[in-house]
Write a structure and sequence with these properties.
Distance between the termini: 100 Å
Strand content: 15-25%
Largest sheet: 4 strands, mixed
Shape: globular
Mean pLDDT: 86
Structural class: alpha/beta
Number of helices: 6
């Protein structure tokens, strides 16, 4: 009788251990799965997002707006893609400042497009608007440039020693933002970059 009771007790203990092991294993699998999902999300977050079109990209970035007359899609056809962007300027601004604003907008939109979409070529027009009236274009400072991905890569290589457009951005506080490298093109080397885009 005692032997039977001992056998029953041992089988219950063994069964409990097996259940406990199974539960522990299940918990570990769940934790591992959750960790893998978090790692996967982090890995995706560390890749510069791509957009299906320049229109989608510009609307998402919200640097320019159709409602405020600072963004116009002249052509959304992939073979003749053409966007117009505008920033406000003051009448009393120096001519050199007005020119730099226009050049900076072109450099920004073109390189942003190559970094965040798969387009091969884009035409960018930049024309400032009056600070007090966004409906009034300052056509005296209007500039247009057509550039392809290959030329943009050559410029990137020349000034930043890379052909990877994602180096223009930095990941901060769960957001991708234009980084120091983009500032080199837009500020420090602006005139040289713009001239290279022209030729």
């Amino acid at each position: 009788m005692k032997k039977i009771i001992i056998i029953i007790v041992l089988s219950i203990v063994t069964s409990c251990k097996t259940d406990s092991n199974a539960e522990t294993e299940l918990e570990q699998n769940i934790e591992s799965s959750e960790e893998n999902q978090i790692e996967s999300k982090n890995a995706k977050a560390m890749i510069l997002p791509k957009f299906n079109s320049v229109k989608e990209m510009l609307l998402d970035a919200n640097d320019f707006s159709e409602e405020k007359n600072t963004l116009k899609f002249i052509s959304t056809d992939i073979n003749s893609l053409h966007v117009q962007v505008s920033k406000p300027i003051l009448q009393e601004d120096l001519e050199s400042v007005k020119e730099e604003i226009v050049k900076r907008d072109i450099v920004y939109v073109a390189f942003q497009a190559f970094a965040q979409t798969d387009i091969n070529e884009i035409t960018v027009t930049a024309v400032p608007v009056e600070y007090d009236d966004y409906k009034k274009y300052v056509n005296a400072h209007k500039l247009t440039i057509k550039i392809n991905r290959e030329k943009a890569k050559n410029i990137l290589q020349k000034y930043l020693q890379s052909t990877d457009f994602s180096i223009l951005y930095e990941y901060q506080n769960n957001l991708w933002l234009p980084g120091k490298n983009f500032s080199i093109l837009k500020f420090e080397k602006l005139n040289s970059v713009f001239n290279d885009m022209l030729h």
